[in-house]
Amino acid sequence: MTTRPATRGVDPRFLSALLSIAWIAVVFSPIILLGVEAIKATIAAPSILMLALPTARRLGLLVNSLGLSTLVSLSSVVVGALAGSVLWRWDTGVLSRLRWLILALVPVPPYIHALSWMTALNWLNSVLTGLGVTLPTTGWAPTFFVEFMTYLPLGVGLALIGYTGIDASLVEVARLHRPDSDTFLRVVLPLITPAMVAAGGLIFTFTLADYSVPALFSVNVYSLEIFSDFSATNQASRALVLSVPILLASIMVLWFSQKSLKSTVQINASSRPSPKLNYPLWIRVPQCIAAILTGSQVLVLLLSLIITTGGVSNIGYAVSMATSDIWFTLFQASATAVLCVPLALIAVDRLKNGSGLWWIIVLAPLGMPSPLIGISIIKLTAYTDLLYGTWATPVLGTLIRFTPVASIVALAQLKRIDPLLFDAADLYKRSFADAWTRVRLPLQASGLAAAMALVFAFTLGELGATLLTVPPGASTVTIRIFNYLHYGSSDIVAGLCLVMVAVMIIAGLAGVAFINLRADSGRGPE
Amino acid sequence: MSKTIGVLLIAITAASSFYTLNAAESKRVVVVYTSVDQVFSEPLLKRFEESTGIRVLAVYDVEATKTTGLVNRIISEKEKPLCDVWWSGEFVQTILLEKEEALTPYQSASAEGIPSQYIGANWNWVGFGGRARVLLVNTNLVSPGQIPHSLLDLTRIGVPANKIGIAYPMFGTAATHAATLYAQLGPEKTKAFFTELRDSGVTVVDGNSVVRDLVANGQLAMGLTDTDDAIGAVSEGAPVSMVFLDQGEGEMGTLIIPNTVALIRNAPHSTEAKILIDYLLSSRVESDLVESGWFQIPLRSVAAKQSFFDASSVRGINVDYETVYGYLEQVKKDLAEIFIR
């Protein structure tokens, strides 16, 4: 008979409450402050509430936005899953590292993707003119295509994370009994479903909040209406109320998609090579198309940036003029990526238990316009006299914006882990810390690493909240990119975008080296 | 994992300490928030640092935030300002800050010679050099006979409307231009003009710089933008020319948008702030900004070695800036109804 070892430490319920309070204080209190202001404004002028109910023109914009976001997220997920299955086979040599380059494109702002595709479309049109064919350069078609291509790296990247986390032995066992096409459809795809659902939810939310790409192609969406109203009235409370439909749509999509997922329990990702499935033609053709689309996204963006930059000396010039910005950006992205880990762990612990209120609390920042988050941080830090005007405020801004991303990704990965392992750790733990450091964290390490990589990438490209919170005298690469974009220095803008891609690659390589170091020392879950 | 996080936290703390110490190394500092393009403003601010020993901590605005950026930051920081000097590329945002009581008067000796119409009430702000609204025309696509003479003829000159571009008129200087038309022509006539633009299928794009790029690369035949944007295209050798509209006798002229500079109320470094304002309002800075192409229409006589056009020949709309500001919120709401659908 096994006896349960004696445990020591604080009461878990007390600790849980403490952690919840800490989480709310860091991530949600600025939003509470804005909410209070909105309530005050509503009491003073109840008609503001009507802004939350989109009617007539605003309803049309919202329907357009929801349609575009749904189409972009579904397309990105399907193509991402297919392209990811191709990259999954690249598991040896240089290709096994090269395939992760796709994630290096995530921090490049959507606007830059759009400009690259605009250039490509114009070039294509100049070629096609002779054939009497003209591709549209404004309207819904190019808007959808460019939004889809912008978020495709995220879809493919998360799919790849899902594929590489699959226990190969499960697939091999299935192959003994069923054809490879069945194995792919009934075993492999369900195993990556949590990652793909997370990708779909995030892409839906990001597309819904983005006005920059649609505006570039002369398409109007709901988020532009929010900015237009904010620009006219300068009232954050009105903008917050106007954001309610976007907020609700984002929360509902992410909540229902994650709640409907069943756990796809695996013991652990296998270190064996990925199974080389023999796909039938009807899977190979879509895989090929998906791979070509993904390849063209990488090529168009990188080629456009390299050609526009015009040479290594120009990249050197861009780096030299933005050196301090690069350091500050690195600091902000690293700090946000690290600090989001404990916050994501706390959030995941509450989300997995299914509390609806926690879903709203955790996901609300995703649907809020980024300048409002910046404004709420200014007000809160000024009011409390904590961290006001310091280096920490932009980190707080990106933490608030991207902790939901980290939480969703970590939760999706958690659904792949056998909960019995956690129960066993709780039962046999010597202490609370022991259970976390020896079992829980190592088991969740891959999910947390993926979350950190994404948060790092998104922080590199963040603009709205950072502009309002960056300490005087500091700046980020993204702020400089948009400043020079207005001036028309396309060579410097392209050079700075390549710097962002390089930073992401270097950070990725450092992360891989660190994981390899740990694997070599045999430090896995016990 | 926990040790790793611990090590990273220590690294972050060390990095943050570096930034804190770095920021504090100079005793005399001044904080400026500016919506003037970094490429123009940064060299001037560096020269100020070199000549005075006062360190400038700048925050630069970007067009992409749709004028919801630094002005809202100043308003939010109003009770505990971090900023000392606001340097704007236009005037309506500055008047907004004045209405929000975020500014304080400062009568700079360097403002001598600037006409009173460019000085805010009680010296809350001072204007010091103007950009103008201009029609940028692609000379490969438009013949001289197709160039409109008046803004109101924009869609009546035989060029397909979808080849004519404007920036969203709810944001930035395009909004200021629309508010000026409200003041000059009246709200109904102006709304009718913009409705006609929409109905005819004019291409509405995401900012003046996009208008410039699309005209320069031939996707648009012509478009309304600011002179600094237009000069960017001219300097790069694009086949474009600048046309100032409504310049005939008795016509309204084009909008001239002055830069504005102001001292922030309760500025933490007010002494240094006044020195910076004196510097920015100096004739030398005004001529430097003309030569660099940021603005082209000095508000007083300054000697510039190079200019991109004869500023003295440009007729500006005679309009009261406070009146223009007064229309701005209505303009943005009206035009959102017309264009965001």
Q: What would you say this structure looks like, in words?
A:
The complex is a heterodimer of chains A (526) and B (341). In chain A, 76% of the residues lie in helices and 0% in strands. Chain A is built from 22 helices and no strands. Chain A is globular, with a radius of gyration of 23 Å. The longest helix of chain B is centred in the first third of the chain and has 23 residues, at 2-24. The model of chain B has no long low-confidence stretch (mean pLDDT 88). Helices cover 41% and strands 16% of the residues of chain B. With 341 residues, chain B is of the alpha/beta class. In chain B, strands 1, 2, 3, 4, 5, 6, 7, 8, 9 and 10 form a ten-stranded mixed beta sheet that branches. Classes of the chains: A mainly alpha (526), B alpha/beta (341). At the A-B interface, helix 2, helix 8, helix 9, helix 14 and helix 16 of A face helix 1, strand 1, helix 2, strand 2 and helix 3 of B.
Describe the structure concisely for a colleague:
With 526 residues, chain A is mainly α.
How many beta-strand runs of chain A? 0
Please estimate the helix content of chain B.
40-55%
- Give the DSSP E fraction of chain A (strand runs of 2 or more residues): under 5%
Total of helices of chain B:
11
Beta percentage of chain B is 15-25%
Mean pLDDT across residues of chain B: 88
Radius of gyration based on Cα positions of chain A: 23 Å
Written as H for each helix and E for each strand, in order along the chain, the element string of chain A is HHHHHHHHHHHHHHHHHHHHHH
Please give the radius of gyration of chain B in angstroms. Answer: 22 Å
Number of helices of chain A: 22
E-strand count of chain B = 10
- Globular, elongated, flat, extended or rod-shaped: what is the shape of chain A? globular
End-to-end Cα distance of chain A, whole Å, is 21 Å
Largest sheet composition of chain B: 10 strands, mixed
Relative helix content of chain A = over 70%
The assigned structural class of chain A equals mainly alpha
Distance between the termini of chain B: 51 Å
Mean pLDDT of chain A: 85
